[in-house]
Amino acid sequence: MVFRGTFVEDNSLGLNPVTGVNLILSLILWGIINLHTYWLIPKYLFQGRYKAYISFTISLVLCMLLALFIATYIMGQYYTVPDNIRTFNSDFFFSLFLNALALILYFFAFSFTLFLRRWVSYHQRLNELENSGLQTELNHLKEQLQPDFLSKMLNKARDLSLEDADRASALIFKLSRLLRYQLYESTHKKVLLGDDMRFMTDYLELEKICNPAFTYEIRMESKVAYIQIPPLLFVPIIEYAIQESLDLGKDIAFELKTDKDMLLFACTYSIKESTSRKSLPAFTKLQHRLKLLYSKGDYLLENRCDNQSQCVTDLKIKL
Question: Which of 78, 157, 186, 309 is least enclosed, having the fewest CB within 10 Å?
Answer without folding.
Answer: 78
